[in-house]
Specification:
By secondary structure, this protein is mainly α. It contains 9 helices and 3 strands.
Length: 334
């Protein structure tokens, strides 16, 4: 069984997303309790971001359930693309939260208000931060293990909330030690800048997925797996394209084979290549491999021996890399 097939059932992703929603709702209550006791604008800013966490976690849960559905007649490539929408939606919410925090806090730098029950608020906020840290790390790990962009994005969002809480804690500790009240909203504005940057990165990642932006690491990974078991008859590959959508990996390319092979023999070679990729990416792989006949100019790269069509001596087989394998090549007869 391949590593890809050994990954847990999508039910694990649903459980992780549900846990994120439940914990997020609990922490939201704790932070608003801390705000009600202290009146801190920084804590209020942290609580506002937690509202975004709960909304985003709800959307993440819906998208994880939908992405786990198998391909059907209306969606032959599966439903995983919704995870890019979820990540973009979450990134947008983070940006809105960051702007809201700045709007709420900036004016208070010049008109600070005294804080009450600060010690109790610090304890509540510290406890919420520790829980959030554990949750965020667990979500990021689950997202990478399950190859779920939604869980990874949700985990990174939760971790930004941890950074927010840490910044707020530092600011409130300084207020506690120095009695300088304007430090509270000032720290909230600084943390908001980090939130805005995180939101931008998530939206950039979602946009790249929706536009099926080339993933050099995935292309090189495919080339490496094929090169490790390359046969002399596999002269070259080109027009390699690959992208991930949820738990599915879509791969298509042209495989150059000796032109004197029969249709049945060429089909057998293609099936061997498919077996390598299925072993690597499991049943979640969608493969489309087109067989091209070789040309005389490719004789130096061909290791097939004997070859009735050879016009030039073999020199060496070219190494396969994602950046070159993805290029188009003129096909014979065109």
């Amino acid at each position: 069984m391949s590593e890809y097939e050994a990954r847990p059932h999508p039910r694990a992703a649903v459980i992780a997303a549900s846990a994120s929603l439940a914990v997020g709702a609990l922490l939201l209550g704790i932070k608003f309790l801390a705000y009600s006791q202290t009146g801190s604008s920084a804590i209020l800013s942290d609580a506002l971001e937690s509202i975004v966490n709960v909304v985003a976690a709800s959307f993440a849960l819906i998208s994880v359930v939908y992405a786990a559905a198998p391909p059907d007649s209306r969606h032959p490539y599966g439903h995983g693309t919704i995870e890019f929408f979820a990540a973009g939606f979450e990134g947008g919410l983070i940006i809105v939260a960051g702007c809201g925090i700045i709007w709420e806090s900036f004016g208070k730098i010049f008109s600070p208000v005294p804080l009450a029950n600060l010690d109790q608020g610090l304890v509540l906020l510290a406890g919420a931060g520790v829980i959030n840290l554990l949750l965020g790390l667990a979500l990021v790990r689950s997202g990478k293990r399950l190859r779920s962009l939604t869980l990874t994005a949700d985990g990174k969002h939760v971790l930004t909330d941890v950074i927010t809480s840490a910044g707020v804690l530092v600011g409130l500790v300084l207020v506690r030690l120095t009695d300088v009240a304007w430090l509270d909203p000032a720290v909230a504005c600084l943390v908001a800048a980090n939130i805005l940057f995180t939101g931008y990165k998530l939206m950039r990642q979602a946009f790249a997925g929706l536009m099926r932006e080339a993933d050099p690491r995935l292309l090189d990974e495919i080339c490496l797996k094929l090169s490790a078991r390359r046969k002399p008859a596999w002269i070259g590959i080109h027009r390699l394209r690959a992208w991930r959508s949820g738990s599915r990996t879509h791969i298509d390319f042209h495989l150059i084979l000796p032109r004197d092979l029969s249709l049945e023999a060429a089909h057998a070679e293609v099936r061997e290549v498919e077996d390598i990729l299925y072993a690597a990416y499991g049943s979640q792989a969608d493969l489309l491999i087109h067989a091209d006949p070789c040309r005389e100019a490719q004789c130096p790269e061909c290791g097939e021996d004997p070859c009735r069509s050879r016009a030039r001596d073999a020199v060496r087989a070219c190494l396969w890399f994602g950046d070159t394998a993805s290029l188009d090549q003129e096909e014979p007869g065109r």
